[in-house]
Amino acid sequence: MKDLSATEEKKDSFAALRYREFRSYLGMRFFFTFAYQMQAVIIGFHIYHLTKDPLALGLIGLCEAVPAIGIALYGGYVADKSEKRGLLLKIFSGVFLCSIVMLIVTSGQMHNYVPTSYIVPIMYCMIFGVGLARGFFGPATFSLMAQILPKELYPNAATWSSSSWQFASILGPFAGGIIYGFLGITVSYVVIIVFIFIALVCIFFLNPHPPQFIPKEKIVKSLTEGINFVFKSKMMLGAMSLDLFSVFFGGAVALLPVFANDILKVGPEGLGIMRAAASAGAMLTMLAMTRFSPMNKPWRNLLIAVTGFAFSIICYGLSKSFYLTLFFLFCEGAFDSVSVIIRSTIMQLLTPDQMRGRVSAVNSMFIGSSNEIGAFESGLTAKLMRTVPAVVFGGSMTLIVAGITYFKTKTLLPLTLADIKPADNIKDQI
Predict the structure, then answer these.
(1) Fewer CB near the terminus (10 Å): N or C of the chain?
(2) How many helices (H) and strands (E) in the chain?
(3) Separation of alpha carbons 138 and 34, rounded Å
């Protein structure tokens, strides 16, 4: 790996990209995220088209979140003790197979053999399989990052990694809506499968890395260590909790198919554009953060970002204009991206190398599936109180969570990036 001085790394916005393995890592994330986000748009619109039930949209999130949360701790244990490239190949192969099954059951000819009432349950089962793979994917990629880059590049790498994710999250939903609207669901799934295959190829350009630790204790004790470590750090626990509750109540983006179909009446093409708008705001903000870091006072900036996120959700719910909705979704993505960068950097800096998989697993339980659980909450509240009140309620609850967190963590507000050290070495974070 190329050796860069600390001064050069600090000034160089492209420092992390100078590492070949990191570029392969970004390619893997980009192509997989493109396929995943494209599939999310298609599944959401197709299931709502078949059921006309907002709760069915919530069940999409629940089917993915339950296995992701249930397997998360074990996934972290496996990620810590496994060679990362081989583990990722297995994960992506599983997602690839699930997508092929969804291609088959949603194709036009299959409707002649499979009743419509069976299609939605089969899709839910495949979503469950994707959620199972996600329980291993998060810890594996989080652990891999530490093996291909030096610690001083974590903030820069987190920005590029998140920017790559957001760029794919712009193109994926947009492409999904356009292709589904003009060429149909079968062509859409063919494109998804091609991009997942490209992501699989990118994994082969990663070098095999030995396991970070060989566990000597029983699995329960090993996993308990990871949980205890997180709960000892006030900053890490606070960041996870804040994201969990804010995204849980602010998961109203899952109701976009209802807005596209019933309220704004813009069809699958409009749905793709709306999904892309939030990601566009996130990506542009993240690119700006490669030059203007939000880490001067990370905890203060995190709370500001979550507050802006909540207001954007409320305004999006109240909007009756397509273009105004796009603006508020753009703002929602921009504020969310700031909190993503801050949380990612805090976790990387506070976590020892030998515990990265297990800590990432705990993070997955808090954060990794909070979007899907939030989607279920939004679908359920929309079923009970209608769509627009459900979105406003979610945004308002997120504001309350941000306010409570502010009063509970005032001592963290003055901390700078230099003050963030491993949790077992800093007393004022415990």
Answers:
(1) N
(2) 16, 0
(3) 16
Q: Reply yes or no on whether the pLDDT at 195 is more than 90.
A: yes
Q: Alpha helix locations (H) across 386-423? A: 387-408
For tokens 């299609």, what's the residue?
119
pTM across the whole model: 0.66
Burial 148-177 (b: 16+ CB within 10 A, else e): bbbeebbbbbbbbbbbbbbbbbbbbbbbbb
Helix spans in 12-153 (H): 20-51, 54-81, 84-106, 116-148
Q: Which two tokens stand for residue 271?
A: 């749905």
Range of the domain at 374: 19-419
61-114 per-position pLDDT tens digit: 788 878 877 777 777 777 777 778 888 899 999 999 999 999 988 876 566 666
CA dist 237 → 73, 243, 305, 346, 405 (Å): 16, 10, 18, 11, 11
- Supply the CATH number for residue 32's domain: 1.20.1250.20
Q: Round to whole Å and give the CA distance between 357 and 352.
A: 10
Q: Note whether 178 and 47 are within 8 A (CB).
A: no
User: Between the CA of residue 377 and those of 55, 58, 251, 315, what are the distances in Å?
Assistant: 9, 7, 8, 19
DSSP letter assigned to residue 406: H
User: Considering the domain boundaries, does residue 2 fall inside one?
Assistant: no
Average pLDDT over residues 390-409: 85
The residue with tokens 């800093």 is 426
429 domain-assigned: no
pLDDT in tens, 117-160: 788 899 999 999 988 888 788 778 877 777 787 777 777 787 78
Q: What is the DSSP string of 221-273?
A: HHHHHHHHHHHH-HHHHHHHHHHHHHHHHT-GGGGHHHIIIIIS--HHHHHHH
By three-state DSSP, how is residue 386 classified? coil
Q: Tell whether 3 is covered by a domain.
A: no
Number of domains in the chain: 1
What average pLDDT is seen over the chain?
78
